[in-house]
């Protein structure tokens, strides 16, 4: 993994995020893939935890940030309608004192305005410095960069993070969406999460949406945005470009 960056073994895939009101693609989440020369494609679920343990995550997250912004620049130059690009950052990264400077200088270097970048924050490790984390979110907001709380509901401290960090968006974890239509409890929980977000003036997105029934239910509950295999799997850049071109011709 130490050599993966210099050996060009990392690649970003992108998964569309769809607005349930306009039916438009409003965001693309960058998801990291590692093309290992012998082992083939390794999923981030396998290597990110190791990268976090070894500290390699710092360089990897910086690489992802830079390349997602470079890609965003290319989309803008191609004249794509304004789409946000979402980057996952580990909580470790979020508690670095230089996080804000790294993001700000990456935006400057690539010529991207803050409003076209979003950060997805997940509780991969415990937050040991809530003050610094909150401060980073506030500084990012001041330059237009919004922050989502990823995998919401799965971590024992989800509600306490919500209170301490005041993010801009909640991302309901896919486990809740998967079970949602099987039992009424599942529906009530998702409903409650959507209401919680809206009562706090936050946008809410559901991840792991795999079928039409789920979309219908989420729409009926006024969930703002959706993401999942039902719309598209994460795709390499050429394929995501085709997806966006095709959708642009679809009626709402
Ligand atoms: P995440 O940010 O919650 O991303 C969602 C994961 O769910 C992705 O897995 C995506 O491919 C998958 N997914 C999307 N739609 C569906 C669906 O409809 N059904 C199912 N079953 N799965 C769906 P992926 O790409 O393997 O990423 C796993 C996790 O690894 C991510 O979870 C994120 O926490 C982490 N990760 C990915 N890329 C990066 C990165 O660049 N930096 C960091 N720090 N973490 C990353
Ligand atoms: Mg994410
Ligand atoms: Mg996650
Ligand atoms: Mg997630």
TrEMBL record:
Name this polypeptide is given: EAL domain-containing protein
EAL domain mapped to chain residues: 1-248
Highest taxon of the lineage: Bacteria
Coiled-coil spans in chain: none
Species of the source: Paracerasibacillus soli
PROSITE patterns documented for this protein: EAL (PS50883)
InterPro entries documented for this protein: Cyclic-di-GMP_PDE-like (IPR050706), EAL_dom (IPR001633), EAL_sf (IPR035919)
């Amino acid at each position: 993994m130490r050599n993966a960056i210099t050996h060009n073994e990392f690649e970003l895939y992108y998964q569309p995020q769809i607005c349930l009101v306009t039916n438009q693609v409003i965001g693309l989440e960058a998801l990291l893939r590692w093309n290992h020369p012998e082992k083939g494609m390794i999923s981030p679920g396998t290597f990110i935890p190791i990268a976090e343990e070894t500290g390699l995550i710092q360089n990897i997250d910086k690489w992802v940030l830079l390349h997602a912004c470079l890609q965003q620049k290319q989309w803008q130059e191609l004249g794509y309608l304004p789409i946000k690009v979402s980057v996952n950052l580990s909580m470790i990264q979020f508690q670095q004192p230089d996080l804000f400077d790294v993001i700000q200088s990456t935006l400057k270097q690539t010529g991207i305005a803050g409003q076209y970048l979003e950060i997805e924050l997940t509780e991969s490790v415990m937050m040991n410095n809530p003050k610094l984390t909150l401060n980073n979110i506030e500084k990012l907001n001041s330059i237009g960069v919004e922050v989502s709380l990823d995998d919401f509901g799965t971590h024992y401290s989800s509600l306490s993070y919500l209170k301490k960090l005041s993010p801009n968006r909640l991302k309901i974890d896919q486990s809740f969406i998967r079970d949602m239509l099987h039992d009424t409890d599942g529906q009530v929980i998702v409903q409650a999460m959507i209401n919680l977000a809206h009562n706090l003036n936050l946008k809410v997105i559901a991840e792991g949406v795999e079928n039409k029934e789920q979309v219908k239910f989420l729409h009926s509950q006024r969930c703002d945005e959706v993401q999942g295999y039902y719309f598209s799997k994460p795709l390499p850049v050429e394929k995501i470009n085709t997806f966006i071109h095709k959708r642009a011709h679809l009626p709402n």
